[in-house]
Amino acid sequence: MKKRAVITGMGAVSPIGIGTDENWHSLIRGTSGIAPFSRFNADHLPISIGAEVKNFDPKKFLADRKTIRLTFFNVHLALAAAKLAVEDSALEVAGLDPTRFGAIVGSGGGGFDDGPGFEDLNDPILKSWDEEKQQFDSSKFGELGVPSAYPLFLLKALPNNAFYYISLLYNIQGENDNIVSSYTGGSQAIGDAFRAIRRDLADIIIAGGYDSLLTPNTIFSLDAFNLLSKNNDPSTACRPFDRLRDGTVAGEGAGFMVIEELEHARKRGARIYAEIAGYGNTSSAYDICSPDPAGTGIMSACLRSLQDACLQPEDVDWICADGVATQESDRAEAQALHTAFQDHIASIPVSATKSMTGHMGTGTSAVESIYTALAVTRGVLPPTLNYTEPDSSCALQIVANQPVEKKISSALNINQGIGGQCTALVFKKF
Question: 280 and 221 share a domain?
């Protein structure tokens, strides 16, 4: 008999709040986290706005100053979100069997900071500059630059840093993985944790993801792919599924869940938010940047997740959509939903929370999974901001600009990434 996986703790650090309660209140109020950049000078960037995490002090979450020094800002977000999730779950870590305690973490890669991370390379890069040719000289970098670099710089850039510190902090010795994936890593981690619990490979797993797209290099790359909105008005820039949408807004964030086997949670009297019931994970195999116009990857992920949960399309009460807010991606997602749900899609409300948080990279899929679980628990659908002009090519029942109270039995969270990876997670009311 398959085990059941429930959510007993959640922690979110996003542009609209630190902690699940602050995130939820901002979400339901329609508070946007998009604003002009405050951490670096945007004069030479193609855009001047982003979705930064505000009022975040890593020292409030990490007692070890060495850990702060040896990790980048995005890892600080991850460790904070994981700590919030564990505290929320009321776990007594010391009393757990560490071999039945797991951690699965999604990251966007090692990453660099816009501040201290680049300072570690400033001197090496300057020593590698060819004045005569006015360009970077890689041979000079190897000869003169590397020896002058901060000796632990590569250690800071490891893509499994958050996983290591989470495992160390909570003495996790069981099921584990570190998923480096473009934007879907957080939901893949949650889905894999769900599968591990169901197969009785663990009693408890900390699962989620983190990322920051707010570095000059990443912003230039996203702009080159034509993924970023050129609208520098923070209040209207990100408008998923709206006819006037022109791209997403770069952001940052982290989200983690404590996922627990049902009977284990019951025995310790844990509060249960919701149940994870189904998971679909596919690839569109179409293009590294452009989505498949037919949305085949999303469609397949949705259908697989429903089959996994033993549900029919008409059983879904609400969809938390990916809603990237590019013309092509939103159109492809809408097409996928029409194909997967057929006529039922006309009666299923759809929200896109990136209109408030921006795109948090690999952190997005984890944070949006948390939003989905909270909506199921509390019976309120978050709004989609800036939805003022419907697009006939995205004919969906969008929850526009105001929250809606609705009893939810089953909800679906959808995410997709650069490279064609697509995920869908089914959350059920417990």
Answer: yes
Could you tell me which residues come within 8 angstroms of residue 59 by beta carbon, excluding any fewer than 6 positions away?
A: 65, 68
Q: CA 424 to CA 422: how far, in whole Å?
A: 7
State the total domains in the chain: 2
* Cα distance between residue 413 and residue 376, in whole Å: 11
Model pTM greater than 0.90?
yes
From 336, 330, 353, 359, select the one nearest 399 (Cα to Cα). Answer: 353
- Could you tell me if 143 and 212 lie in one domain? no
Q: What is the pLDDT of residues 357-405, one digit of tens each?
A: 999 999 999 999 999 999 999 999 999 999 999 999 999 999 999 999 9
Longest dimension (CA), the chain: 71
Other CB atoms within 10 A of residue 327 CB? 17
Residues 120 and 131 in one domain: yes
β partners of residue 207: 104, 257
pLDDT at position 123, please? Answer: 67
Query: Does 110 have pLDDT greater than 70?
Result: no
| CB atoms near residue 231 (< 10 Å) | 19
- Lowest-pLDDT choice from 71-80, 85-94, 280-289, 374-383: 280-289
For the segment 52-70, the average pLDDT, to the nearest whole number, is 93
Domain that holds residue 152: 116-156
Q: How far is CA 97 from CA 101, 110, 163, 166, 295, in A?
A: 7, 30, 19, 16, 43
- The pair of structure tokens assigned to 175 is 């099921």
What is d(CA 52, CA 33) in angstroms, rounded to the nearest whole number? 7
Residue 23 has pLDDT above 90, yes or no: yes
- Per-residue tokens: 321: 């959509």
Token output for 374: 């909270």
Say which residue the tokens 């057929």 belong to: 342
Same domain, 188 and 261: yes
Q: How confident is the model at residue 115 (pLDDT cuts 50, 70, 90)?
A: very low
Residue 412 · residue 319 · CB < 8 Å? yes
| Residue 398 CA to its chain's centroid (Å) | 21
Task: Specify whether 215 is located in the same domain as 132.
Answer: no
